[in-house]
TrEMBL record:
UniProt keyword list: Lyase, Metal-binding
Domain of life the protein comes from: Bacteria
Gene Ontology MF terms in the entry: lyase activity; metal ion binding
Stored InterPro entries: CbiX-like, Sirohydro_Cobaltochel/CbiX
Species per Swiss-Prot/TrEMBL record: Phaeovulum vinaykumarii
Protein name: Sirohydrochlorin ferrochelatase
Length: 228
């Protein structure tokens, strides 16, 4: 029986909702993969990773993160090894080339006044910013003539400033799970900017995500993963 584990950061302030959402996602993925065992854990939920890893063998680990950074490259491998799990960590959700199609379908009907890709950013490094910019570049190629801008929560260009420049643009939250940034910070920044465009569901909630993850888990080894 092939084993898989979907891992996300979660919300340290309120870990249970994100853990429940991720477990529901794992169940949806498992329904698409007969014979597989698919579990889920957030790093923020106490003991969740250790419980999910118990009994898994040579698992394919899917990081439900938006960028390849410190968490996916260093913290996650260390946590998995300490939990006694072996296998391979796949490239993260936000870097999956198939995500471009989901994002394009989500924004295309509302892109007439532009699109703002609202992303986390980081005070400590560029991977989160780079991942969002790569997605914005891909959306511009898919939607010729459409203005697609990146607005960040934790570093320039700040979302509130981008929204002031594009007040009628649709906003697509470039996030895997809904937590404080999606539920609070993004709406607050858009309101502060006086923006009137639609706020779309965050990308991790797209109905096509279980199929995307299923395909990634079944794909031949590419050498891009991290062996644990």
């Amino acid at each position: 029986m092939p084993d898989a584990l979907i891992v996300a950061h979660g919300s340290p302030a309120d870990p249970e909702p994100a853990q429940n959402t991720l477990e529901s996602l794992a169940q949806a993925v498992e329904r698409r993969l007969p014979g597989w065992r698919v579990r889920a854990a957030t790093l923020a939920a106490p003991g969740a990773l250790e419980r999910a890893a118990e009994g898994l063998h040579a698992a394919r680990v899917y990081p439900f993160f938006m960028a390849q950074g410190v968490f996916t490259g260093r913290i996650l491998p260390d946590r998995l090894r300490r939990a006694g799990l072996s296998g391979e960590i796949l490239p993260p959700f936000g870097t999956d080339p198939d995500l471009i199609e989901l994002a394009t379908r989500a924004v295309a009907p509302l892109a007439g006044h532009g699109v703002i890709l609202a992303a986390h950013g980081s005070r400590s490094g560029s991977p989160a910013r780079l991942s969002a910019r790569n997605m914005a570049r891909a959306l511009r190629a898919r939607l010729p003539g459409t203005t697609v801008a990146v607005g960040l929560i934790e570093e320039p260009p700040y979302l509130v400033d981008v929204a002031r420049a594009l007040p009628r643009a649709a906003c697509l939250p470039f996030f895997a799970l809904a937590a404080g940034h999606v539920c609070d910070d993004i709406p607050a920044a858009l309101a502060q900017a006086g923006a009137t465009g639609s706020i779309l569901p965050h990308l991790g909630a797209d109905p096509g995500v279980p199929g995307l993850i299923s395909a990634a888990l079944c794909a031949p080894r590419s050498g891009a993963g991290i062996v644990i």
